Amino acid sequence: MLQLLKYGLGLARADRRHLPSETPLKKSYDVVIVGGGGHGLAAAYHLAKDHGIRDVAVIEKGYLGGGNTARNTAIVRANYLTPEGVKFYDASMKLFEGLSSELGINVMYSKRGHLTLAHTDASVRTMRWRAEVNKHMGVSSEVIGAEEIARVAPQMDLSRSARWPVLGALYHPIGSTARHDAVAWGYAREASARGVELHQQTEVTGFDMADGHIKAIETSRGRIECGRVLMAVAGASSLVAKMAEVSLPIRTVPLQACVSQPLKPFLDPIIVSGSLHTYIWQSQRGELVMGGASDPYSLYSTRSTLEWKEGLMAHMLELFPYLSDVRLMRQWAGMTDMTPDFAPIMGKTPVDNLYIDAGWGTWGFKATPACGKFMADTLAYDRPHSTIAPFRLDRFETFNQLGEAGAASVGH
């Protein structure tokens, strides 16, 4: 507000250009980051800021933040199931809290509370498990009953006559939302201000390899020699990794979402029902942001379907029957990379100068600050940062999976 007043009185200048003009690709870089989404841009920023590594190029097939960063539903939480997952996402939430100040852009980080509903005794048991792990790791989270749920979210149908009565919920008071495009743009601007080059419309077409080492990257704009390579291409991880002769335990499935027409503010917390495969929150513009289960088959496509929309609305109306006359405004899909244990893959690969950031399923956005910071550290010192070491790729060969399926918001 103060800045707006200064600008109106002619005491402040308009904001600087957000991103620099496009420059030609150089012959080589110390680090090339494949993927210009939030994760790749955050890693580039931290390489330059924390480690002084500025000879960095981010290459993006489309436009910055135009992939899954633009298609997620912007929920931020840390109420996971495993100690490793809770520790990682707790670190990410702490970084989110200061992100607007750090990047000089309003990412609209908003604490609103997060309810994961339990409709069965088995779900209540899982919520108790998660709450105990969360509290042990210092994360605010507890199981609450119907009376407390009614206080937090009086808008829901909590009657015992509902088809799937709500028996309890995992309440995560610090559950939040953030503006996803601002996060990507903020990291891009601050990375470029520190010397990182951003190259859009630059597609990887292959890797020139020798003795388990990437010598150069072949792109639609020419060949780039490189010291180290970070792959952060959510939705296409298996395809790009295959070019480097790395096989990933990932299947890629579409995940759809939608928003309603704008309504007057009435819903503050984020509501999730894993049993009904439904989640909903109301944006600052009044739209209801809604999502559900991923499509039940592998597909590289961002098309949306009538079948998914019909199923989601049927479940949504079980929680909010009075929304039956509300119209949908937009529907879209992203492509999610699912691992067998529903946890991401971060760290080194069998290729000695290739690092990976993949397998995020439905929780990549909330990991953006922490993944960027810890992956930058991993590249800088050529060893996994301790916080992300449990998420290494070879855990699937050594049978050290993490098992985060119970923390998924919806079915996969």
Describe the structure.
Helices cover 28% and strands 25% of the residues. By secondary structure, the chain is of the alpha+beta class. Strands 1, 2, 9, 10, 11, 12, 18 and 19 form an eight-stranded mixed sheet that branches. The chain is globular. The two termini are 43 Å apart. Helix 2 runs parallel beside helix 8 and helix 4 (83-97) crosses helix 11. The chain has helices spanning 2-8, 38-51, 68-71, 83-97, 99-103, 121-136, 146-152, 180-193, 237-243, 306-319, 368-381, and strands spanning 28-34, 56-59, 75-76, 110-111, 114-118, 142-144, 168-172, 176-177, 197-199, 204-210, 213-219, 222-231, 251-260, 270-273, 278-282, 288-292, 328-338, 345-348, 354-358.
H and E order = HEHEHEHHEEHEHEEHEEEEHEEEEHEEEH
Main β-sheet: number of strands, strand sense, barrel status?
8 strands, mixed
> Rg, please?
22 Å
Specify the helix fraction band.
25-40%
Principal-axis shape equals: globular
Mean pLDDT value: 94
Low-confidence stretches: none
Percentage of residues in strands: 15-25%
Structural class: alpha+beta
Number of helices: 11
Distance between the termini: 43 Å
The total count of strands amounts to 19
Can you lay out the helices and strands and say which pair or pack?
Elements: H1 2-8, E1 28-34, H2 38-51, E2 56-59, H3 68-71, E3 75-76, H4 83-97, H5 99-103, E4 110-111, E5 114-118, H6 121-136, E6 142-144, H7 146-152, E7 168-172, E8 176-177, H8 180-193, E9 197-199, E10 204-210, E11 213-219, E12 222-231, H9 237-243, E13 251-260, E14 270-273, E15 278-282, E16 288-292, H10 306-319, E17 328-338, E18 345-348, E19 354-358, H11 368-381
Parallel strand pairs: 1-2, 1-12, 2-9, 5-14, 12-19
Antiparallel strand pairs: 3-8, 4-8, 5-7, 6-7, 10-11, 11-12, 13-16, 13-17, 14-15, 15-16, 18-19
Helix pairs in contact: 2-8, 2-11, 4-11
